[in-house]
Prior knowledge:
- Helices cover 24% and strands 35% of the residues.
- The protein contains one helix and four strands.
- A four-stranded mixed beta sheet has the order 3-2-1-4, covered by helices on one side.
- The N and C termini lie far apart (51 Å).
Amino acid sequence: MHCNVKFFWDSDSKVWVATCKEIPSLMLESGSFDALIERVKYTLPEMLELDDVDVDYCDLEFISQRLDRVRIVG
């Protein structure tokens, strides 16, 4: 199974949020990008079980997106 795990930065909460279309129950957040990757890997078996997905392995592709606004003084 191949899963695209999408990370986006929530600037209001100041956390990274992880979602995955292939695993609907996966919705995690963390202030650290690297910590969120580890949380996804750690909780993956439980999330797959919640979604009734029976697989032997899962390839994870992490895709990140962050939008920032920069004020240009000139």
